[in-house]
Design brief:
- This protein is mainly alpha-helical.
- It has nine helices and no strands.
- It is elongated and about 55 Å long.
Length: 202
């Protein structure tokens, strides 16, 4: 009996994304928005800073918001760890510390606010923002919760979904409405609230 051969791989149109070019574009967008603000940021400006043509950017991203979203996602993945520190209390504190340390950087805070605002007026971008950034950050925290559950030191209450709501709800409230500091005192308060019943908790 003849063995069916696998079909040849489909060749995609256009050039393969150059990781060096992608990194240069994301870096340029992140730096430039800090200098000119959201309103002054343009694809042309990003292209000029990155040393590429604007069509290169449009081939990979449909808008400046999408470029910044990718830049922010990369930064969050790099700076917010998920290492096992031996207990739920320690893991959660590390996650909160990394998250709030990044979130209180002026440039990051401005980008977060700009992207959240854009997500309210552009439905397509809003859907992408929710799936590629907000859900990604919740999934990162969920990994901490899942490890605690497997370890046996996750408190019964609050429920994992509520933990996520509390952590990110406080972060966004302080960024968008209260304009209060996202500092170590906040880490202490949340850690005490969320791990009070956990072994090794505060």
């Amino acid at each position: 009996m003849a063995i069916d051969k696998q079909p040849p791989p489909v060749e995609r149109r256009g050039r393969k994304r150059s990781e060096e070019s992608r990194a240069a574009i994301l870096t340029a967008a992140f730096e430039l928005v800090g200098e000119v603000g959201w309103a002054g940021l343009t694809i042309e400006g990003i292209a000029g800073r990155a040393g590429c043509g604007k069509q290169t950017i449009y081939r990979w991203w449909p808008s400046k918001a999408q470029v910044l979203l990718d830049a922010l996602t990369v930064k969050a993945d790099l700076h917010i760890g998920q290492a096992d520190h031996g207990s739920y209390a320690a893991d959660l504190r590390a996650f909160l510390t990394d998250t709030f340390t990044l979130g209180r950087q002026d440039q990051v805070a401005r980008i977060l606010c700009a992207l959240m605002a854009e997500a309210q007026i552009d439905a397509e971008f809003g859907a992408t923002f929710r799936t590629e950034f907000l859900r990604r950050r919740r999934d990162a925290l969920q990994a901490v919760l899942d490890r605690a559950l497997a370890r046996g030191d996750l408190p019964a209450r609050p429920a994992p979904a509520t933990v996520q709501d509390l952590v990110f709800g406080v972060l966004w409230y302080r960024l968008l409405s209260a304009h209060r500091p996202i500092d170590e005192a906040l880490v202490d308060d949340l850690a005490a609230t969320l791990t009070g019943g956990a072994p090794g908790g505060p």
